[in-house]
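Hi U.,

Before I forget, here's the chain from the pilot set. I'm dumping it here mostly so it's searchable later in email.
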Amino acid sequence: MSTAPLPLVVVCGPTGAGKSELAIVLAQAFGGEIVNCDSVQVYRGLDIGTAKIPLADRRGVPHHLIDLLDPNQELTAGAYSRIARNVIAAIHAAGCVPLVTGGTGFYLRALLEGLSPAPPRDDKLRARLSQMGERRPLALHRFLRRYDPPAAARIHPNDRQKLIRAVEMTWLTCQSATTTQSAPRRPLEGAATLKIGLNPDRSLLHGRLNQRAAWMFHHGLLEETRALLRAGVSTQAKPLESLGYKQALKVLTNALSLDEAIGECQARTRQYAKRQMTWFRREPGVVWLNGFGSEPGIQSQALHLARSFLASTATPGARANTLVS
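Structure:
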């Protein structure tokens, strides 16, 4: 006799759309716990630049996968998926509703759909490839053009991280990264998923993003970045390449003035929000709400959707948990 799937709610959308606020409202209403799906909020000490919800503002709602790693560590999408699946299983076992929220679409896809089997990272090989890319910036892309043309077509010549991973997979498996990535995936099992997407007016979103970027720089982002460096975090650490911190580093090294850094951060954040919407538009089954998650009307719509969805699924904890971790 099969067990009915357990409910999982996802809140997705671009940065600044109010995903965290809406997730907290839903969690309070339905006994939920929040699972972070933001690739930078997993790092300790990166609070202002990630718009991390302060503990006092979480209204007693448990939050998972926040402040998980030190900034000099890295969390791959595959590792995130494994950890998040275990957390979701534990939330279900406790009789609660997991709410996954964040703007890292690749993490969400890895969680829900799984990733194709791929070789583990080889740090020595990656270091060699990184050095090659620094000496000859186009060498990695030329390698892919020869041995994996589809990957070369979809990866920008300046996207060093993706180039290194594609070349690494090709080298280690003796087949193209495209072939490896087309292998069958292992999706999340045992869960019925409601995906709620936030789609605020673009001009209003841009205004909010501009204000937030300026606010961060005037309310401690430079000091937070300086503290990370004093704590031994490398300027090459992956989280310091993220929006806000990258521009803060330029101010601290006198590469940009404060006003120039704010302007660059604002422009790059608007571009990032556009890329996020393009990604999430391709995500199947998303119910889109045209507004911010902080708006009462949007919250009412989301509560109605979640209430109907939860009524049609098994009560968490009432049945054996069948999530595959």
